[in-house]
Amino acid sequence: MPEVKGFRAFRFDPTVAGPYDDAITPPYDVINPSQRAELMARSPFNMVHVLLPEGEGDERYRNAAARLDSWLTQGALKQDPEPSFYLLSQTFKGLDGQELVRKGFFAAARLPEYGKSSYLDHERVFDKKVADRLALTEHTRAQLGAVFVMYRDPNALLAPFYDEMRRRPEDMRAVTIDGVTQRVWKVPQDEAVTRFFRDETLYIADGHHRFRMACLYRDRMHEREQPNGDRPYDFVLMGFVDINDPGLRVWPTHRLLDPPEGFTEPAFLNAAGEWFDIAPAGDDLAARVEAAPGCAIGVAVHNGGRHILTLRDIDRAAFLGDDRTDAWRDLDVAVLHRGLFERVMGLPDGAEYVYEPRADAALAAVVLGEKKLGFFLKGTRTEQICACAHAADPMPQKSTYFFPKLPSGAVIHRLVADA
Q1: Is CB count within 10 Å lower at the N or C end of the chain?
Q2: Confidence of residue 419 (pLDDT cuts 50, 70, 90)
Q3: Strands 142-143 and 413-414
Q4: How many CB atoms lie within 10 A of CB 11?
Q5: Residues 293, 295, 301, 304: is their CA dihedral positive or negative?
Q6: Which residues contact 208 (CB under 8 A, 6 or more apart)?
Q7: Is 185 helix (H, G, I), strand (E, B) or coil?
Q8: What percent of the chain has pLDDT over 70?
């Protein structure tokens, strides 16, 4: 059963660190090199100095720890005096340009013992990424970004908990580099919230590597310290969002690639036609994919055509193989990878692709010839994510793109006994 509780967060003091806009960032893994350079130049207190530190090898992690320590010494980061929850509101624009608001909250959650988890995941993790975050955590002794989890509250039992957002102004407001307005309210630890989650299943939406890293760090510290009671590292910083929140969005991640040797557009369409109905499309390719019923995949060819491929009502196990679960075979991205890429085009499992969540940017890359082929998907539905999580059948890489990401630096969970 999940144990969710308040914690004493470290937060930026704007009288020392300057505007929140110049300190708070998206997570490390969605910050590109040009954004990293821009954020570093904004302020010596920008989170990117710790999330993506300068230097080579272990020097990077030492630099991150030194930077974080300097912020603490200068009073740029200060710890709240009592355990609290932290409400979060994120205002952003959807793919259609309409303004949306997603709400949630930050808290500390007890890490599970192996084999006894109420946290279900849907992504495969990679050892290199886990090792990088683990080294950073061992040097900084802090959880700098939250694991994003979804929960179900069909009866709106937590609605009163969120009422503080309407009663008073936020304690922190920042506009991050991704254009999202982030607002945070510090609120008292609430036993009703803790009770609510005791019987809940939580679905990891984003931050699988951070979650795995937190478990490994906890295990290492237990072996090293042999503690008698709880320590901060027994808990992980989490951001909680209701799966039915109207602002919860899962964007598609489109694929760009160069075709294999011998590829021709007519031969590809002829081979795909055994399984798909094929119709021509134009500049509105991505919009038509999103509006199409069933499993529909858009294809754009450099100096060629644009097409909508709609999977027929077939035995998916016959097309995709019977070595995976029904939940996995229900995914459009599984149809794309196992069906079109591997079966029709002959690409190997694990082939590398360029991933792009913005349809206009993906289509422009094909038009300019930066990549010769573009494949366009619908966003994965949350019920499909939950089904794969329950089936313990990891989805293909980059099957989901939750937007916005949870901000890094809004609250920091230090992993030292006096914090």
Answers
A1: N
A2: low
A3: antiparallel
A4: 23
A5: negative
A6: 121, 123, 125
A7: strand
A8: 98
Helices 127-140 and 208-225 sit at what angle, rounded to 10 degrees? Answer: 50
230 by Cβ neighbours in 10 Å (0-12 / 13-18 / 19+) ranks as exposed
Which residue in this structure is represented by tokens 């970004």? 145
Average pLDDT over residues 377-404: 90
Q: And the tokens for 401?
A: 């793109």
- Residue 403 · residue 92 · CB < 8 Å: yes
Type of residue at 89: S
pTM of the shown model: 0.91
Alpha carbon 64 to its chain's center: 23
User: In which element (H, E) is residue 206 found?
Assistant: strand 202-206
**Domain residue spans in the chain?**
4-249+403-414, 250-400
pLDDT at 95 over 90: no
pLDDT digits (tens, 9 = 90+) for 105-154: 999 999 988 755 677 776 677 789 999 999 999 999 999 999 999 999 99
Q: Are 139 and 275 in contact (CB under 8 A)?
A: no
Place of tokens 């991640």: 253
Instruction: Cite the DSSP H helix spans in 102-244.
Output: 127-140, 164-167, 191-197, 208-225
Residue-wise burial string across 357-375, b where 16 or more C-beta atoms lie within 10 A, e elsewhere: bbbeebbebbeeeebbbbb
Neighbours of 37 (CB within 10 A): 12
Q: Report how far residue 90's alpha carbon sits from residue 135's, in angstroms, rounded to the nearest whole number.
A: 30
> What number of other Cβ atoms are within 10 A of residue 299's Cβ?
26
